[in-house]
Amino acid sequence: xxxxxxxxxxxxxxxxxxxxxxxxxxxxxxxxxxGAVRDTMGGTANASYHxxxxxxxxxxxxxVFDADNKVLFSDYQRHHTDIRAxxxxxxxxxxxxxxxxxxxxxxxxxxxxxLAQWLKLDFVQEVIASKTAVEAFIPNTDVAIELGGEDAKIxxxxxxxxxxxxxxxxxxxxxxxxxxxxxxxxxxDGLDELARGASMIYPIASRCGVFAKTDVQPLLNEGxxxxxIAASIFQSVxxxxxxxLACGRPxxxxxxxxxxxxxxxPELEKRFIHTLNLSPEQVIKPDDAHLFVAWGAALAGKxxxxxxxxxxxxxxxxxxxxxxxxxxxxxxxxxxxxxYATFIKRHASATIPKAALSExxxxxxxxxxxxxxxxxxxxxxxxxQLLKQYYANNGGDVLKAxxxxxxxxxxxxxxxxDGAALVEFGHVTVTGYGExxxxxxxxxDSGEIETIAxxxxxxxxxxxxxxxxxxxxxxxxxxxxxxxxxxQIMLNEACSSGCGSFIESFAVSLGMSIEEFARTxxxxxxxVDLGSRCTVFMNSRVKQAQKxxxxxxxxSAGLSYSVxxxxxxxxxxxxxxxxxxxHVVVQGGTFLNDAVLRSFENLLGREAIRPDIAGTMGAxxxxxxxxxxxxxxxxxxx
Length: 638
Description:
By secondary structure, the chain is an alpha/beta fold. Helices cover 40% and strands 19% of the residues.
């Protein structure tokens, strides 16, 4: 392990001009011009200038330095998925200074390989670029923490090189910070400014941006200081990075902080330093940490063929409208309008018996489902007929939502001419995330876990149900039922990519209601295959699809497929459609979206039963349980 530093920051321009870069020895560089891999010891040129380009998931970084490693030009820009145009703009700026000078060129980054192939330039693996730059300019680094737009890395340098990187989740990355800043009605810089005045840290989920919003919104509603929330968001990034990537391996010695978020957000860096309990001597912060991987690419590509920026610019222009790695398209949800009409007619038959509350007299039973993002209530009569249902977003305040719901229900209760109620509440049962809170606040008669409430509701409609899938705002439940008893329960854990909020976030970003967004999917001709990754990753895929001419309907239909793919293949891990049985019931507000339901049936190859009150089936099941318990008590008392 290297000794401690006396200097906490490295002036990169000075370090480059005074340091002795460690040339890559056995690390291979992919020569995309010939498709061959050649060892970097075999030089092809002795250039005076070297250029490195780092094409990340959200930004493009470019650096040029001379034979003495003195920086001549550098730039850092967001590309908004238009990588080619952004690189052309940066190269045009660099060419003003030395456009006709010979230089070596190498590209790295998650979005760089395709561009390297197009332009016939050498591509350097990102881990090699990072390693090369760290060993050349800050060799006493023991651990490097690098945050990017959609990725996060921890690289251990003691006892060999070990890199750990996020995979299917972008929680704790730059894009996650952007999401949280948007929720706070500011940008990343504004979030950093707020965090400077923090005095308290709140626990906020960092594994998923959608879950984090649920933690932040109640804090805002309760009047928590914006400064404290901002610092708490940064702390959640730190927690996610350390726990999710280090996975228990200690981060010790001298720690380098690299990448755009850590370059431009000093309060984020402070949270890392505080959490890791680092002394000033252990902190390594290059002045231009956001360009570090681009520097590494330039170093690793020092033996590439000589080019000029003018030649690169010509190659870019010669690409014309060339497209690569196009987003895969899927079959439409409905082949014809007749298919959709048949679909609607079939599902219209799955109805719950109803009666008018204004005309009802006698004992009624109330079920309440206080979910993660919504509040549902169902009032039923003695024969199980639905008298009243209520469904609304909870706005992060369960008690306020309960007050509004009960106020509406009581306002509609029939009364006699003296104002006395003609309906008596026999029993109240609560379920969902807010069960414990509402049991105390409302003095409800009983509580029940969600799975039992959903099973009871489904069995009322389909007594032989074998498989129940409930998709809510942030959670997903799959119940396998055998002989009327739950045999297996599967839940989503740390990812909300297959839940209702997943679709809602995209609808809001396009300025549409969920209902409007869902309708566009029905007529989509070529839904885009967006996979089943997290919302942060999928934003880039959606933008790319839009560039390739995808309509809003294509995107909406693609997201519907993604929700179901996540449920079937990531949560349930289904292998054979026959495993679900013949009697399938789908519940939850997400399934009120015809596109989601159709995606489920298409992918599973099964027709499902969707209750006409799919969004309130948990509350309806709780109301049925309330009725069951009321009559059980009456029978026992007799």
